[in-house]
């Protein structure tokens, strides 16, 4: 007979969404069980996603900056791969150990194993040391997503997904990245800095096809000078593993081609993990893609079961998951809460970084939303020039009548940190004057936000004034 545990709230999945939900619920007085199939808490983001990739991107940035420091020659860098991996693993361990301690302090019971729902108030956890039955009052499903696969790929360790790429087994002479999205470009940046000749193949007619073209342009230009090859509008038609390399055939605007690489990274999107949990049988609606349908409280069609994070819909981003997790926990604890953000920021941690929040021009064109735009080029920002960089751009989209900020887009070093001001501006209903009259510290990159608003306002003095409004 499996052991039976009763719990007020079970949270399935301990990524940023799941652990935030579990911890918030415990702080609100609920008795919580957190089920995670991996040994360590933190999910993909902490263990094999956001955090390890940023640890490696930091090293890539140091290598690049050292190579381009004016007047200083550091020589050719010597890469100690164990040391690079060690930095990444240490950061991950510190964070995941911290989560385990936080769970203990909050008396959140952690069960290791795979959960499947057996009824609207019960689920089974299959762990390495047996099966546990859980009787729950409420459940939050936070099972995340998995890398999408291309059919027909050979089963070969040299054909990697993001987890394989982060393991950094070696620095391949030639690396092919399939998919010019977030993951593809971030990992391509790491491997390029470590010494690989990197090629990227992308299905659509530009890199990061979701992002506005003017933000992608400076990045695409820089990468064109760094990568061996960028093939756009190109389909991969075959991948064959040979002893001395992986042969990939393409079909693109110039016809068919093929090339041999030492490793291939497949980064063609992620699939939500909503299926195979036993939820459909209970009446929870799961889409064909695997997303669980939820309302603003993050409640599914079964009223005591909630879903948050990647599995509950786009965008599949950790910070969105954490906020949804808190909403679900608060609702379950009897509070009034809803997930209704005006803006969810997105950041691509390449060099330059690209970040946006709120309305994008792509979206506005699609929806027919009226907007006016102001841009400030970083070539006119002193701090940017001191960094040896001038390609950045800050743009703000305004509502024409109220002059309120609808969206902010930034490309340039540090854009990911700068976008936070844009998110706050949107959430607070700020207008052009609010931003233009806010005194930004000089000399910083943050001034580009104030000055983009001044451009809209007609009060800018750092560039030739556009027409007065
Ligand atoms: P993505 O959707 O960003 O990019 C996938 C790319 O692959 C797209 O440009 C797509 O057009 C292309 N593609 C699809 N099929 C292809 C094919 N057969 N051949 C060539 N190209 C193909 O997905 P991703 O980079 O895998 O990332 C997955 C998710 O993870 C993202 O949606 C994002 O939410 C999240 N993520 C976020 C960050 C971040 O916030 N910095 C970083 C990494 C991942």
Task: Provide an overview of this structure.
- This protein has 469 residues and is an alpha/beta fold.
- The protein has 3 domains: 3-147 and 271-332, FAD/NAD(P)-binding domain (3-Layer(bba) Sandwich); 159-268, FAD/NAD(P)-binding domain, CATH 3.50.50.60; 346-457, FAD/NAD-linked reductase, C-terminal dimerisation domain (Enolase-like, domain 1).
- It is built from 13 helices and 22 strands.
- It has helices at residues 16-27, 43-48, 50-67, 81-105, 162-167, 182-194, 213-226, 318-332, 361-367, 382-386, 415-427, 432-437, 447-457; strands at residues 3-12, 32-36, 109-112, 114-119, 122-127, 130-141, 145-147, 159-160, 174-178, 197-201, 229-231, 235-242, 245-252, 255-261, 263-266, 270-272, 305-307, 346-348, 353-358, 372-377, 393-398, 405-412.
- The strands form 5 sheets. Strands 1, 2, 3, 4, 5, 6 and 17 form a 7-stranded mixed beta sheet that branches. It has a 5-stranded parallel beta sheet with strand order 8-15-9-10-11. It has a 5-stranded antiparallel beta sheet with strand order 18-19-22-21-20, with helices on both faces.
- The radius of gyration is 24 Å and the shape is globular.
- 46% of the residues are buried.
- The structure holds nicotinamide-adenine-dinucleotide.
């Amino acid at each position: 007979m499996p052991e039976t545990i009763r719990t007020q709230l079970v949270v399935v999945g301990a990524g940023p969404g799941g652990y935030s939900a579990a911890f918030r619920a415990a702080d609100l007085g609920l008795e919580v069980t957190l089920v995670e199939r991996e040994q360590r808490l933190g999910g993909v983001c902490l263990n094999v996603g956001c955090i390890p990739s940023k640890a490696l991107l930091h090293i890539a940035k140091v290598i690049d900056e050292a190579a381009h420091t004016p007047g200083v020659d550091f020589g050719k860098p010597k890469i100690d791969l164990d040391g690079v991996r060690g930095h990444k693993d240490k950061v991950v361990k510190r964070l995941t150990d911290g989560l385990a301690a936080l769970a203990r302090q909050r008396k959140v019971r952690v069960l290791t194993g795979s959960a499947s729902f057996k009824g609207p108030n019960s689920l089974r956890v299959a762990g390495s040391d047996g099966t546990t039955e859980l009787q729950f009052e409420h459940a939050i499903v936070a099972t995340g997503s998995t890398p999408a696969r291309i059919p027909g790929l050979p089963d070969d360790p040299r054909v990697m997904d993001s987890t394989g790429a982060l393991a950094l087994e070696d620095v391949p002479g030639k690396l092919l990245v399939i998919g010019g999205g977030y993951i593809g470009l971030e990992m391509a940046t790491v491997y390029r800095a470590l010494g690989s000749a990197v090629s990227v193949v992308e299905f659509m007619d530009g890199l990061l096809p979701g992002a506005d073209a003017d933000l992608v342009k400076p990045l695409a230009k820089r990468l064109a000078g760094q990568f061996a090859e960028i093939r756009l509008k190109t389909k991969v038609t075959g991948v064959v593993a040979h002893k001395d390399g992986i042969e990939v055939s393409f079909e693109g605007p110039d016809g068919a081609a093929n090339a041999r690489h030492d490793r291939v990274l497949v980064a063609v999107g992620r699939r939500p993990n909503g299926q195979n949990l036993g939820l459909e049988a209970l009446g929870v609606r799961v889409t064909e893609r695997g997303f669980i349908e939820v309302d603003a409280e993050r409640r599914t069609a079964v009223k005591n079961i909630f879903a948050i994070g990647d599995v509950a819909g786009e965008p599949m981003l950790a910070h969105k998951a954490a906020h949804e997790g808190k909403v679900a926990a608060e609702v379950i604890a009897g509070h009034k809460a809803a997930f209704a953000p005006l803006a969810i920021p997105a950041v691509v941690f390449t060099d330059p970084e690209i970040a946006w929040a709120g309305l994008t021009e792509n979206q506005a064109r699609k929806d027919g939303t009226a907007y006016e735009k102001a841009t400030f080029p970083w070539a006119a920002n002193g701090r940017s020039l001191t960094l040896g960089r001038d390609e950045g751009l800050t743009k703000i989209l305004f509502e024409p009548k109220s002059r309120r900020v609808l969206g902010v887009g930034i490309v340039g070093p540090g854009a990911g940190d700068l976008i936070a001001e844009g998110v706050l501006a949107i959430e607070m209903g700020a207008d052009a004057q609010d931003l233009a009259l806010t005194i930004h510290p000089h000399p910083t990159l943050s001034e580009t936000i104030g000055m983009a608003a001044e451009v809209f306002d007609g009060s800018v003095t750092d560039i030739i004034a556009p027409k007065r409004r």
